[in-house]
Amino acid sequence: MLRLLSIEFHKLKNNKAAKVLSLIYFLLFSAIALFASIRFNFGSIDFRLADQGIFNFPYIWHFNAYFVAFLKLFLAIVIVSMVSSEYTNRTLKQNLIDGLSKKEFILSKFYGVITFALASTLLLFIVSLTLGLIFSDYDEIGIIFSDLEYILAYFLKLVGFFSMCLFFGILLKRSAFALGFLFLIWVFEGIVQLLVKFQAESLDFILDFLPLQAMGNLIVEPLTRLGIVKSTAVQLNSEFTKSYDVEWSAVLIVLGWSFIFIYSSWKLLQKRDL
Amino acid sequence: METILQLKGLSKKFGSLTAVKNLSFDIQKGNVYGILGPNGSGKSTTLGMVLNVVNPTSGSFNWFDGTLNTHEALKKVGAIIESPNFYPSMSAEDNLKLVCKIKGVHSSRINEVLEIVSLLDRKKDHFKSYSLGMKQRLAIASALLNNPEILILDEPTNGLDPQGIHQIREIIKKIASEGMTILLASHLLDEVEKVCTHVVVIRKGVKLYSGPVDEMNATHGFFELKSESNSELKVFLEAHPAIESYEEDDANVIKAILSKPYSAQLLNQESFDKDIVLTHLVQRKETLEEQFLKLTKEQ
Q1: Do B200 and B237 belong to one domain?
Q2: Where is the secretion signal located (chain B) (predicted)?
């Protein structure tokens, strides 16, 4: 495993595009956090996002995990290009000739995926912890480290999404096609959702099994949980109850999809003549 | 003798096209093999199959008597195929380091192999800044990194200028003289003739011949003859017991094919005794090219 990881790391270290994109990603990541702590001062309006309670422990875990997940698209580009460039440079062929098995190749890419997801999760943890320690109204240890399942859910969400990117990279061999296909899947899921909602409500359960939807289900939107928003919602609709927990079913479905994507990547590569 | 690679009835179909058909041959340690065949005869597909990048339709192959599975065996093989494939934005040194990691060998030999192909002074430069000849030489360096049991080269001089071709040939000759087993696929016959001890000839995916180069066409060679009166010479040749057949070309040179070994001196003497004075006498064997053309035409 260490050998494969070191092979993949050697490739990434010497890939300019991967380095630049990863850097942008991690900078943006930190910038968003900074942005939230800026105080807006327009004459009479003195507004600071950080003072709205979003950085209170343990809510901050949920809030940050939900919002920075949008940035995963940057890393998705890195993942897709690190797979498809192996095709365009024909280095995949050379790797195999040099004695890497097809299974090892996919595994080394999967370890790359795990590494990216892990690094991103770690950063999320550190940034959230820092912001929380600065702005949170509560700072008891017990409260700080509660609700950490959102961090795990974030990790899983990234692994699932990147595995999907990896699969499309292997399937389509070109970064642009793979990213385009990702977009198409997104549109397709949207259409299915509309269809089910308006035409066949009894098929509701299918939605939870769509890959992107399943990844989205991992971390439920946190906005309506926020104090002010929630009190408004309850006023409007006294029966407003919503579960914000990380559901086991969503975890299992995403794990299932990750496995399917990685396994099919391997099978696909095995069947192909290069 | 140690068998390095054994092909048993290997076939590959691409749709309705049969690229390789029921191909069997063995590669023994210490020999230099040439796979000969016109363009599109299935050479690269065959190599692709034994190198784990093309899936055979049927048949099988064994590396090192089947003691290792294919990808483990390939770590002990050095191979380059068609164009050199490396990571464009990595330096030569980094590319070779990666190959070392894949093959599981120490990176201490990098400078040594770069020296062999005279690229040592360019090792820090990006691969994409290399000329085709340099890329091809880097590929050879990469194939030598693990001190391979066998070196497989697929069209190593393709697309190179005369100087580049010469450099690659010198490198191959040098490696061959050190006793390394080499498998060289090429359609350039003089390339193969200069270094190979054994040949495998394939055409349209079918094996026509495999064995030592000099047994490829079991002939005893021929004489090229010319005299002032070719008609008398022909009568003499007709009656000669060692001459199988003869033909005259446009330049009035007669090519007399031998049916058994015979010396040029004796033939010269005999013809002189019959008052035929030869103006031209050459004894030689057919070149690989002539043998190859004959072999591929016969089928």
Answers
A1: no
A2: none
- 């700080």: which residue's tokens? A144
To the nearest whole angstrom, how far is the Cα of A180 from the nearest Cα of chain B?
A: 25
Give the residue from chain A lying closest to B50, CA to CA.
Answer: A97
Residue B16 touches partner A, C-beta closer than 8 Å:
no
User: Hey, which residues does B199 pair with through a beta bridge?
Assistant: B34, B211
* Low-confidence spans in chain B with pLDDT less than 50: none
Spell out which residues of chain A touch residue B79, defining contact as CB-CB under 8 Å.
Answer: 97
The total number of structural domains that make up chain A: 1
pLDDT at B299: 56
pLDDT at A45: 66
Q: Please give the DSSP secondary-structure letter assigned to residue B67.
A: T
Range of the structural domain that residue A238 is part of: 2-271
C-alpha to C-alpha distance for B36 and A7, rounded to whole angstroms: 36
The number of domains in chain B is 2
Residue B120: is it exposed, middle or buried by C-beta count within 10 angstroms (0-12/13-18/19+)?
middle
Q: The CATH number of the domain where B57 resides is what? A: 3.40.50.300
* CA-based nearest residue in chain A for residue B86: A91
What residues of A are in contact with residue B113 (Cβ under 8 Å)?
none
Query: Which of B164, B198, B215 lies at the terminal end of a domain, its last residue?
Result: B215
> Could you tell me if B184 and B253 lie in one domain?
no
Q: Are strands B3-14 and B32-36 parallel, antiparallel or unpaired?
A: unpaired
Q: What is the ipTM of this complex?
A: 0.84
Chain A residue whose CA is closest to B97:
A10
**Considering only CB atoms, which chain B residues are within 8 Å of A90?**
83, 85
- Chain B contacts of A94, Cβ < 8 Å? 85-86
B142 and B36 within one domain: yes
Nearest to B71 among A93, A94, A99 (CB): A99
pLDDT value, residue B274: 86
pTM (2 decimals)?
0.85
Is there a single domain that holds both residue B229 and residue B185? Answer: no
Q: Are B286 and B230 in a shared domain?
A: yes
Residue ranges, chain A, pLDDT below 70: 39-50, 227-242
Give the whole-angstrom CA distance, residue B88 versus residue A90: 11
Contact check, Cβ <8 Å, A97/B54? no
The predicted pLDDT at position A43 comes to 66
Enclosing domain of residue B286: 222-298
Q: Do A89 and B86 touch (CB under 8 A)?
A: yes
Whether residues B273 and B233 fall in one domain: yes
CB B117: neighbour CB atoms within 10 A? 20
Say yes or no: B45 and B128 in one domain.
yes
The domain boundary, picked from B215, B237, B259, lies at B215
